[in-house]
User: Fold these one by one.
Assistant:
Number 1:
Amino acid sequence: MFPSHSRLPVPADPADHTECIVVREILDRVGDKWSVLVIALLGQRSQRFNELRRQIDGISQRMLTLTLRQLERDGLVLRTVHATVPPRVDYALTPLGESALEPLNGLIGWAAEHGTDIAEARLRYEEAQADAAAG
Amino acid sequence: MFPSHSRLPVPADPADHTECIVVREILDRVGDKWSVLVIALLGQRSQRFNELRRQIDGISQRMLTLTLRQLERDGLVLRTVHATVPPRVDYALTPLGESALEPLNGLIGWAAEHGTDIAEARLRYEEAQADAAAG
DNA sequence: CTGCATCCTCGTCGATACTG
DNA sequence: CAGTATCGACGAGGATGCAG
């Protein structure tokens, strides 16, 4: 969370401390390992648990469950249980979740576009470090 | 990082695994506690170390140093040392750093706009949980 | 198939003390 | 003023086993 005294240059009321906290919480969600990927996948189409699991190579059952719970809790994802046998659970984005796709894709787009710039910057940095150590 | 087999629905070449990794790394940066705030503050004007420190209530000296180092390493922030006494170090956004402001503000704007929606969703969720437990 | 509980590891962050 | 070094606490996340 942003500490309550600090400010974020958001368009809206910069004096509102609550807003900073809210923003920090959401940014935290963006930062955690799987949330954005899950949102992006559900943005394509609604899917079942193991359908997601198979697409997200490397995710543990536990983390997929936790991630989906959190997204459900935040109102970004809708969980639908079908009382069939075997049980079937569908996950879909809510309208709120869909509204997140746009800013998220903005960020993802930026990342994809400037990824090489960053990689190059890192190389230059390492180089400079090596020079400093050698010199 | 995104596992190398998973895909992100970015406009550009979805088959490129490297892109996923790069995107995940950048998303991680967004998620860490202080980076976005530092970028936002430097977006207003370039600032000195303790100038930033004072504005970011709650940050430790260590974390501000680490955060700035990482942003410098990634080419988002430029560090300028003035050989005066006492020493003076200025931090400023690079053009790359400034280019990040737009997507970042997009996300921050979304968060600010939908923060109450999320808060409400959480209340409803807790409520439903309580009902389930009681019923 | 979907999901919870447990254990354990590892990285991140804060506190503190010290340096140029 | 602007760092670096070290230590400890904490929590995210993976592995595994069990349940509805």
Number 2:
Amino acid sequence: MRKIDPIKHEKKRQEILAAAKRCFLRSGLSGASTAQICAEAGISPGHLYHYFESKDAIIAAMADARLEGTSERFKQDVYGGGSVISALLSEIEEQPANPAQSALFFEMLAESRRNPEMAKILHGRSRSMRNLIAEVIRHGQAQGEIQPELDPETAAMAIFGLMDATKAVSLHDPKQDIKKITALFKLLVDRLLSSDAKTAKPSRARKSAQRSRSA
Amino acid sequence: MRKIDPIKHEKKRQEILAAAKRCFLRSGLSGASTAQICAEAGISPGHLYHYFESKDAIIAAMADARLEGTSERFKQDVYGGGSVISALLSEIEEQPANPAQSALFFEMLAESRRNPEMAKILHGRSRSMRNLIAEVIRHGQAQGEIQPELDPETAAMAIFGLMDATKAVSLHDPKQDIKKITALFKLLVDRLLSSDAKTAKPSRARKSAQRSRSA
Amino acid sequence: MRKIDPIKHEKKRQEILAAAKRCFLRSGLSGASTAQICAEAGISPGHLYHYFESKDAIIAAMADARLEGTSERFKQDVYGGGSVISALLSEIEEQPANPAQSALFFEMLAESRRNPEMAKILHGRSRSMRNLIAEVIRHGQAQGEIQPELDPETAAMAIFGLMDATKAVSLHDPKQDIKKITALFKLLVDRLLSSDAKTAKPSRARKSAQRSRSA
Amino acid sequence: MRKIDPIKHEKKRQEILAAAKRCFLRSGLSGASTAQICAEAGISPGHLYHYFESKDAIIAAMADARLEGTSERFKQDVYGGGSVISALLSEIEEQPANPAQSALFFEMLAESRRNPEMAKILHGRSRSMRNLIAEVIRHGQAQGEIQPELDPETAAMAIFGLMDATKAVSLHDPKQDIKKITALFKLLVDRLLSSDAKTAKPSRARKSAQRSRSA
DNA sequence: CATGAATGAGTATTCATTCAT
DNA sequence: TATGAATGAATACTCATTCAT
């Protein structure tokens, strides 16, 4: 009569997911086999399918969890009193420290071209983060702190792209000092948002684009 | 006992490489099988190993050829009367139009973490491009057209990173207008290099940072 | 420490058996999994083994129940005032309407060659039906209504075989009108049993070969 | 430069097919694994797929070959101077001697309900054999040797069904004397075709329904 | 009586690679 | 130079069955 215990089930699922993530980080999306994942999770091959219906489902769940984590952290940063810029930068500063994570992310990005499920997950998460950035920019524009000519959507996409740029950079040259790059990117974002260097009020913007509470 | 004709041999090798690239673009690095490549190249499976000692060798050769192409085109742009900026932008503007190429590139980037051969190729090509950018920046700084505080290596890496950002952006949202993003990136690079955004003349930099020396 | 209630137990067993039969009809003997059966019966996988010791046991029980049903109906027809012929024909007329049942039956027949348990069940039920037919024939011969040269065992087997022929026919061409075939088979049986085709009175046999004794 | 030798290829294919058939006869359609088939054929698991694209393709090829054999032999019998009846009976007499073959056949018949490929093969072969029988009947009717009221299509199907009946009979009771049954079936067919026992000229037909050359 | 967790051998199939000709 | 035959380990996944609770 003992009914299913959803807490235990979910816990095991998360354990397996964590094991899977370690495998994917180690061997890549297609390099990691279900056998490896089972071994890492300490379960039998058949048991894996008690929790996930396919390897693709594991990949999807892992990708979703990972991006949700990033997205959530980002949201916290933005709403938690920081500026868009600092939120962006905290993200930029965290990821590149882990090239394995970056590599896995790029595999997911590549995968999204062939796997519609992956595309849905990735595009969805990506869009929500960009929407958040765009919203903050609009808010800043309303306050006169961000130059009004800037298209919020485009700027959001560009800023978002810098996160991936940072990841790429860390893979292009693992030994370099990523701090310098992020500092430069910070400068770039700062200037982008500022009420335009060419048009009079340049210095104000640099310290302005924060305060965004909205949701 | 026929001696091999090195010219014919090399020609066939290139044909196979081209076929392989089509397969990799279509199905991904691990998704494309040697059987597919042979079919695409119109040769028998055994014959493939007459030209390449393994699938990894094909991937390496393909990656090398692809990056050499990019690098060479970039060099042409820089030396061919254009500015670093325009060279960078022509690269930025070309790639994202082809998400398949972008995806393949990111797969190569990810692969470089696990495959030392791939790492050697990718890091080498990446470094030589960044060196070129850095050199141009130094030249510009000597001429007083680029702000002197800028660390050329760091700036080069940042600019280089924007190429990958553009690729990533095109995969994050395939439907968007990539032109707008590249225009924004162009503006960013422009401001980064210009003697100083705060000091009015940003446009000069655009046509200045050219003419560097030989490789 | 509850004692089991044999009535409830048997009821549940029958429910599972019914569920299993639906699965076998849908997916075939080896195509239906125990998981499917459990789902169809609304029980957990472990619980299945409380009622049956193996999948083979389920198949055996299902086969036995099915054949017992056929056999019983047949007996009813024979004893219930009808003739052997009409009993046979009612069976013939009912089954082919359901190709799924026919297919399942043939799978059981094939299985009987490899599975001794299945062979025992199938041969037993088959024999008892044929014995019944043979007995009726003997009775008819004693009455002078069925030609005396006919070997009752052989004739019984032949008549019995026509049932399977009807099933086979319906699978060979699902779209055809099975009524025509059964009418023809009826005619054949009629002629076979009649005192002699050559001696004019064939119609008498039709209503004659009834009334036999108990099992 | 050695081009493919289609004869050797086909020979090997037939060898594998023969091995597969032995496995299917031994273990059944779903009971025989590709691993078993490979072992029986003396090839590696991967090599099987050099000759067949799937297990289903093997089954289909085997089924087709088997039915083609039956059909061809039947055609020979009919055109080779014998009567329809003797052709039918030679088929009837051959198969039941091998219950394994009968069992396999019934598995194919059952499979045809779920597998459209199998249905196509089986229905096609079945139809062509029935067409042949019907044609012979029509010829006999034109000659006045077969009763004219008989619908040739229906009669053909019924006669065809008797083949399967014989197979079924041999599985229902493997120990019995199949000769007696076939003799009885012969009698049935004979009477069916004869110009009707009830309507005057009965004896002629019995020795008549031969001579059929037509195609 | 009943659950769902867990097993592990087994499934068809793929694939990079080698070999004989 | 070139072929297609052949390999065998590996792949994702299934399934009847057992076990702890």
